[in-house]
């Protein structure tokens, strides 16, 4: 099998293989992988407790399609803002499926190789502007003051450039938390390791006074991030080489303690975006689909799509879940309300 340098490309392949049975994950005689079976979008009920969260029998809607690799969903004033990280664009789509291009260089680079992961990624509404946006190409957190118009906001830690900010969330105290893996450095000619100025891939906290703290430094590829509805637990998942989801006690002053592992994927990479519902369950993209997981690590169900789901966002009144999945945007309705962003503008 050809070596896959780009982590998100690897994620796409893992997502494909995880839909196959053990006997199907084989190579044809000519060395080519077998055709990927068509997966009908559906919700797999794995525990009766899922019934209180979502109707597993409902159809899953495809709202829009035709993109390369979608990410970074955020609801803003009646539309879903999202990015195409491999086409370096930011869009907005209405509930009816009308798409508008907001920014044709959303990753912050004037020139970039086609179909590499340098576009904008995670986004969150912020005070005084529309949102903060993680830009993989520019290696920064940017502020979006008008739809699609961005400027650098957080760029360095202790004089060194950030790696490639990925996902963002605001805590109750107004501090911004974000993950900073090196995914967006792979396109550089010198290679990711040579371009990386920080000696770690971090999870950072940026407080309301402008102090930036590296709160977690021991995860190889920190990716999705979220905070429990009571504000007392921080969740961060690790993309790979082996995927897992961690939880930390989050104190009022922003310090972390009592790290524990919620779930692990032995021998597999792939956990990506995550969101929390108001009952405290984690909805996390990963190998084979989106898992709905209790704080204790029990998997209640899984959302299966024909494409690799990278991220998701609760929207509108909290009972609508949008999913960014490779070339398309999907939508389902939930019984449980999702936790909405701290500074959301409906």
Describe this structure in words.
The protein has 346 residues and is mostly beta strands. The chain has a domain at 7-73 and 172-333: 6 Propeller (Neuraminidase), CATH 2.120.10. It contains two helices and 27 strands. The protein has helices at residues 7-17, 192-195, and strands spanning 42-45, 61-65, 70-76, 79-84, 89-93, 99-103, 120-125, 131-135, 140-146, 149-154, 156-157, 160-161, 168-170, 176-180, 202-206, 212-216, 222-227, 233-238, 243-250, 256-265, 274-276, 282-286, 289-293, 299-304, 309-315, 320-325, 328-333. The strands form seven sheets. Strands 1-24-23-22-21 form a five-stranded antiparallel β-sheet, with no helix packed on it. Strands 2-27-26-25 form a four-stranded antiparallel β-sheet, with no helix packed on it. It has a four-stranded antiparallel β-sheet with strand order 3-4-5-6, with no helix packed on it. The longest helix has 11 residues, at 7-17. The chain is globular and about 50 Å long.
Write the layout of secondary structure elements.
Blueprint: H1 7-17, E1 42-45, E2 61-65, E3 70-76, E4 79-84, E5 89-93, E6 99-103, E7 120-125, E8 131-135, E9 140-146, E10 149-154, E11 156-157, E12 160-161, E13 168-170, E14 176-180, H2 192-195, E15 202-206, E16 212-216, E17 222-227, E18 233-238, E19 243-250, E20 256-265, E21 274-276, E22 282-286, E23 289-293, E24 299-304, E25 309-315, E26 320-325, E27 328-333
């Amino acid at each position: 099998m050809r070596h896959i340098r780009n982590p998100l490309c690897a994620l796409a392949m893992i997502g494909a293989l995880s839909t196959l049975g053990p006997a199907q994950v084989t190579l044809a005689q000519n060395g080519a992988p077998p055709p990927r079976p068509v997966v009908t979008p559906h919700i797999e009920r794995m525990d009766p407790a899922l019934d209180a969260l979502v109707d597993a029998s409902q159809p899953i809607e495809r709202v829009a399609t035709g993109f390369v690799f979608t990410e970074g969903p955020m609801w803003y004033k009646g539309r879903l803002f999202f990015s195409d990280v491999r086409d370096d664009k930011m869009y907005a789509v209405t509930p009816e499926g009308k798409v508008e291009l907001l920014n044709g260089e959303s990753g912050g680079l004037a020139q970039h190789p086609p179909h590499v992961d340098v576009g904008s990624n995670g986004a969150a509404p912020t005070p005084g502007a529309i949102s903060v946006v993680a830009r993989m190409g520019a290696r920064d957190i940017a502020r979006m003051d008008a739809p699609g118009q961005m400027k650098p906001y957080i760029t360095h830690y202790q004089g060194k450039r950030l790696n490639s900010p990925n996902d963002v969330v605001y805590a109750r105290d107004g501090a911004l938390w974000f993950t900073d893996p090196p995914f967006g450095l792979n396109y550089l000619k010198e290679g990711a390791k040579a371009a990386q100025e920080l000696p770690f891939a971090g999870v950072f906290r940026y407080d309301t006074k402008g102090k930036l703290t590296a709160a977690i430094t021991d995860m190889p590829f920190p990716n999705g991030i979220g905070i429990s509805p009571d504000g007392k637990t921080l969740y961060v998942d690790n993309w790979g080489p082996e995927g897992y989801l961690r939880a930390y006690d989050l104190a009022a002053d922003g310090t972390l303690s009592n790290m524990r592992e919620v779930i692990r994927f032995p021998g597999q990479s792939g956990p990506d975006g995550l969101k929390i519902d108001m009952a405290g369950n984690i909805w996390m993209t990963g190998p084979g689909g989106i898992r709905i997981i209790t704080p204790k690590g029990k998997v209640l169900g899984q959302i299966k799509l024909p494409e690799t789901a990278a991220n998701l966002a609760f929207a509108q009144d909290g009972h609508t879940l949008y999913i960014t999945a490779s070339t398309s945007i999907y939508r389902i309705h939930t019984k449980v309300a999702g936790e909405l962003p701290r500074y959301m503008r409906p």
